[in-house]
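Example for reference:
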Amino acid sequence: MICMHECMRRNILILTATMLKGKYMCQLLGKIESTFKNFHPKAAGASNVCRQVIRSCSSQNAELLQVERDSVHKDVGWIKLNRPPVNSFSKQMLADIATSVNTIENDPTYRGIILSSSIPGIFSSGLDITEMYQKTPDYYADFWHNVQELWLRLYGSSLPVIAAINGHSPAGGCLMVLGCDYRIMATGKYIIGLNEVAVGVVPEILTCTVLNLLNHRQTEKVLQLGTLFSVEDAVEAGLVDQSVSPENLEETARNEIAKWLKIPDHARSLSKQMMRSKAIETVLKDRQKDIDDFVNMVSQPAIQNTIGKYLQSLKARKK
């Protein structure tokens, strides 16, 4: 009888997974798992099956990410952005990164994450601007939900998350690394900063993130001016914790996360929660309003016109 229930459970999980994408996948699989465990407590391996199914579904978009176990610290997972040419965050890519963070966090064999990029000289150019141009309100809402979800996964992760920034990281790329616990950036003529104001997009989520790093006056200037920092200036301002040569970036990230893993997991996670809970609660409380505000803002003709001109300028540069 147990074997029959187990086979039924696996088949329903796999069937469900093939029908799901993005933000609802992990939550619904978890609910199905709980139902089966309540139905027959002796049906073992529930969490392992869930993780296997999630990995299987994620592999359909494996080209967007490279997820692997660290060769030195086996309890550390690398998530490398892999969407050439500039790792711009599409709706699907945002969902895939969030799912990967969640999968690693819920696997007891992992204790930490290093976030980086597989493209030399580019961490991420930020949000894919085409996802905010000439789409429906529902599409914009789903897109922004995925932005929020990824930020919440990174900023609120119980694991230490180290950003190994191997190149340019403006706009949304900067927002995501600011959600990490420690930021190491490769030296070179790279830029990093929150310049969303350049295309008329100024989401509230930026404010609570930057205010945890800079004082109120600095945050005001950085967000209003869309300041882009050099590597050296980013370290001095506090956006980046450390800079190292590109060839030493991965090794430095490994050494850094080793320090965090020396601290008892529960104590470190609790300290992080105490420091970050207020910002997370603010985002969660105002989540729907933030989505509505984003949809209203990006749908305005003036904003669409600005984005359209920006896209035209990008095309002109390629000629």
The longest strand covers residues 76-81. Strands lie at 65-69, 76-81, 112-117, 121-122, 161-165, 167-170, 182-186, 191-193, 228-230, 242-244. Residues 137 and 295 are 6 Å apart (CA to CA).
